[in-house]
Amino acid sequence: MKHNDNVVYAKDFQNRRRHAEQELKITEIENYIPEGYQSDIRMYQKYCEATEQEETVKSFLDYLFVSVTEEGVKKNTWEKRVVALRKYFNIDHDVQFDEAVQSRIANTRKLYREEGRERLVRESGKTPVDIEELLQVVERLDTRAKAICLVNLDTANRPNEMVNLQVQDFNLDGRYVSVYLRKQDKWHNKRLQPNTVEGIQAYINEYGLQSHDYFVGSRRKNGQFDGVKISETAYRKQLKKWTGYAPYNFRKTLVAFMHSSGADLSTIAKQTGHQSLETLDKHYLTVADTTVDKFMRYKN
Fold first, then answer.
1. For the range 203-207, what are the long-range contacts, defined as Cβ-Cβ under 8 Å and sequence gap of 24 or more?
2. CATH of 131-293 among 3.30.70.1450, 3.30.450.180, 1.10.443.10, 1.10.760.10
3. For the segment 244-297, what is each residue's pLDDT rounded down to a tens digit?
4. DSSP letters along 159-191, please?
5. What does the alpha-carbon distance between residue 77 and residue 75 come to, in Å, rounded to a whole number?
6. Angle between the 99-109 and 57-69 helix axes, to the nearest 10 degrees?
């Protein structure tokens, strides 16, 4: 192609266009604020409105201080706010926190060491539930809800792992599902129980699911299923509505059940996808109350 006696090569044009598209995609990734951060950002914005402050580093530090001293939020909640708002200021306000601000944050964190705030540091988290009672609840659900709950229980998947599952990730003959572990950036196969496989097959047949459909997928108000990916928040709400429990109740229930059945840490980690056995031991395995009760029976 010629223009003003200059030859514009097609390959050169394609390269420049591809480079521009790549730059746009990388910038999009860099500027992405995770969905889980949005609620913390909104609360900070509401605080600025209520106190008639601009969204500045000064109001951010004020918000962190008040979160501890007046609101009395749990420390793990406070830490999540710091991470979310740091990302928000970086992306939306083009502000990087300097050493002085980082020092102020660190000193505000020390408020949790003061007497009277011990309970704000205590981590409760989600607890395992009685697996037999949970299964009784699941058995009463419709085909779709039952299949999803059984998969979540078998795999101990995190919410992001559940909403990203597609029908093509399941190998029902081999009784396993391939799960992408975002934290570890790898695929991992997880085993499925025979009754779970039956539930999945019934779900696929009833809804006519195709290989590219998202396994959880969205369901319209008229009941029609369209196999489109839903958000992690929407999934948490669905699971809570169906069973009364959160995804991490399911996750911890499987770990506790396998452990009480005699499985060692490596076996449990192979199913759950935990990379660190130390993390699995520290945050997921605790002596069950029923075990403690068993050894506290003064009388038969």
1. 203/143, 203/144, 203/146, 203/147, 203/148, 204/167, 206/143, 206/144, 207/143, 207/144
2. 1.10.443.10
3. 999 989 988 888 888 878 888 888 888 888 777 766 666 555 545 555 565 566
4. HHHHHT-BGGGEETTTTEEEEEETTTTEEEEEE
5. 5
6. 10
What tens digit of pLDDT does each residue of 156-173 get? 999 999 999 999 999 999
Going from N- to C-terminal start, the domains of the chain cover 1-32, 37-113, 131-293
Answer for the pair 10, 1: CB distance below 8 angstroms, yes or no. yes
Tokens representing 160? 């992001």
Report the pLDDT averaged over residues 13-35: 85
Look up residue 170 and give its two tokens: 């399941």
Classify residue 91 by its DSSP letter.
H
The answer to whether residues 271 and 156 touch, using CB atoms and an 8 Å cutoff, is yes
Q: How large is the greatest C-alpha to C-alpha distance in the chain, in angstroms? A: 102
Which residue did the predictor score with more confidence, 260 or 103?
103
| Number of residues that this document lists for the chain | 300
Neighbours of 67 (CB within 10 A): 21
